């Protein structure tokens, strides 16, 4: 019987990268990737613990798999990722349908687990074997041939923000060897990748010593710049504390680094930032912003905001609103504080729901207005769009501009993988819509 594997991926870019690498690994033992979840002999839920009620969403997904396979042979059901790392024992006790839980630093063991799997012998793998994991995957070519692909350069976190579970689910900060990253990038580019996004929980904290030389993320950007077939470079997610001058300078020297930066601040109040243990101030954040704007006036920022963090007063909240109005973020994620088990903030007193919801609603109204104003600014203008794929149900093409805006337009599939001019004629909050500007077409 043919062995097929389906992975449903939740959450961050890191999980998407991990899922692709798991696919690369299990090919070695005869598993074929399938996009039809109902025909899988191995079904993996690659989970994320950042969002609210993450654990309950996993059980909901397990319930869906049960229904899907009610009249079929049960697949090997694996719960992977950060929820698996944080909730491993409880998951195996609570849900007998789950066969294996595996944390994100144990993916190098996935082939061994599948080859030795025996029904009714359930298993958990949650060790922090980050170095072994990357050494294992460095020997397996990354087969991603998407126009835009992620490339993990760093994992884990040493910051210990009081609201965050990442240090407990991904472990301490670890930076991959510079040469291994460049080798993988070269493979991706040979596969036809035109845009690489360097990713990590603290991607700009990348720091690796190799051959008596210290490499930082600025070195990675400068090296990627040399690949003629590569058109665009991005990186995410960054911490304000690690926005060093050499990295900021890249926005002046690099022609391929996109002028868009996701730089979470979380709050515009120094008091709340201290309570969060963010290790930076509003003034330091603004200093980074001003340096970036000075070196490249076209650069724009997005951010994350946690609203109603325990201890947040109306004054603290208004400080956040003022910061948002000052910087004019073009795209941001905002949420009401939700406690994560095991974190320092999980023990703190929550702010009243009505107050929390009112604050979030007002803040999002401002953020969405800024986002819409940015999108409107593209109307009646031609923008460079890297075409990523076809939206089959709409018979249209999908791509992104330099600010990561989604751009949807009619066009021939032969344009996939090319950067072309698209004249924007309309927009909504999330996307730009237009037509190919044949008067200004240029080949990638």
Question: How does this model look, in words?
Answer:
- Helix 9 packs parallel to helix 11 and helix 12 (314-327) runs parallel beside helix 13.
- This protein is an alpha/beta fold.
- The mean pLDDT is 94.
- The protein has 13 helices and 21 strands.
- The protein has helices at 13-26, 54-68, 82-94, 110-115, 130-137, 166-169, 178-190, 217-224, 245-253, 270-276, 282-295, 314-327, 353-376; strands at residues 3-9, 31-33, 42-47, 76-81, 100-102, 123-125, 148-152, 154-155, 174-175, 195-199, 207-210, 213-216, 232-236, 260-262, 300-307, 331-336, 382-391, 396-400, 406-409, 419-427, 431-436.
- 43% of the residues are buried.
- Helices cover 34% and strands 24% of the residues.
- The strands form six sheets. It has a six-stranded parallel β-sheet, sandwiched between helices. The chain has a five-stranded mixed beta barrel with strand order 17-18-19-21-20. The chain has a three-stranded parallel β-sheet with strand order 7-10-13.
- The chain has three domains: 3-129, Methylthiotransferase, N-terminal domain (Rossmann fold, 3-Layer(aba) Sandwich), CATH 3.40.50; 133-306, pyruvate-formate lyase- activating enzyme, CATH 3.80.30; 382-440, OB fold (Dihydrolipoamide Acetyltransferase, E2P), CATH 2.40.50.
- Helix 12 links the parallel strand 15 (300-307) and strand 16.
């Amino acid at each position: 019987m043919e062995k097929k594997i389906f992975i449903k991926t939740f959450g961050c870019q890191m999980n998407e990268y991990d899922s692709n690498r798991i696919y690369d690994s299990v090919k070695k033992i005869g598993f074929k990737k399938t996009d039809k979840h109902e025909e899988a002999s191995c079904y993996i839920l690659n989970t994320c613990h950042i969002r609210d009620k993450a654990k309950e969403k996993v059980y909901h997904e397990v319930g869906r798999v049960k229904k899907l396979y009610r009249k079929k042979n049960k697949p090997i059901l694996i719960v992977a990722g950060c929820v698996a790392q944080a909730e491993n024992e409880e998951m195996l006790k609570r849900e007998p349908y789950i066969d294996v839980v595996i944390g994100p630093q144990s993916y190098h063991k996935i082939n061994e687990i599948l080859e030795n799997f025996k029904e009714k012998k359930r298993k958990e793998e949650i060790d922090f074997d980050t170095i072994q994991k990357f050494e294992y995957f460095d020997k397996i070519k990354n087969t991603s041939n998407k126009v835009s692909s992620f490339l993990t350069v760093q994992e884990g976190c040493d910051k210990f923000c009081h609201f965050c579970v990442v240090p407990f689910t991904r472990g301490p900060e670890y930076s991959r060897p510079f040469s291994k990253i460049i080798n993988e990038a070269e493979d991706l580019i040979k596969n036809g990748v035109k845009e690489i996004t360097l990713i990590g929980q603290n991607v700009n904290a990348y720091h690796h010593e190799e051959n008596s030389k210290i490499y930082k993320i600025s070195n990675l950007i400068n090296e990627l710049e040399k690949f003629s077939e590569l058109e665009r470079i991005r990186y995410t997610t960054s911490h304000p504390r690690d926005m060093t001058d050499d990295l900021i300078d890249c926005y002046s020297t690099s022609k391929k680094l996109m002028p868009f930066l996701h730089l979470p601040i979380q709050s515009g109040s120094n008091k709340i930032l201290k309570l969060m243990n963010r290790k930076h101030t509003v003034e330091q954040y603004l200093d980074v912003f001003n340096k970036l704007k000075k070196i490249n006036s076209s650069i724009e920022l997005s951010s994350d905001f946690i609203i109603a963090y325990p201890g947040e007063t109306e004054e603290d909240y208004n400080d956040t609103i003022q910061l948002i109005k000052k910087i004019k973020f073009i795209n941001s994620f905002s949420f009401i504080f939700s406690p994560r088990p095991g974190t320092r903030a999980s023990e703190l007193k929550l702010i009243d729901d009505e107050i929390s919801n009112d604050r979030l609603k007002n803040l999002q109204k401002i953020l969405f207005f800024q986002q819409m104003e940015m999108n409107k600014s593209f109307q009646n203008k031609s923008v460079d769009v890297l075409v990523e794929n076809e939206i089959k149900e709409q018979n249209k093409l999908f791509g992104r501009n330099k600010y990561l805006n989604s751009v949807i337009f009619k066009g021939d599939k032969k344009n996939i993988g090319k950067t072309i001019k698209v004249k924007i004629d309309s927009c909504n909050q999330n996307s730009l819509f237009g037509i190919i500007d044949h008067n200004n077409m240029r080949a990638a």
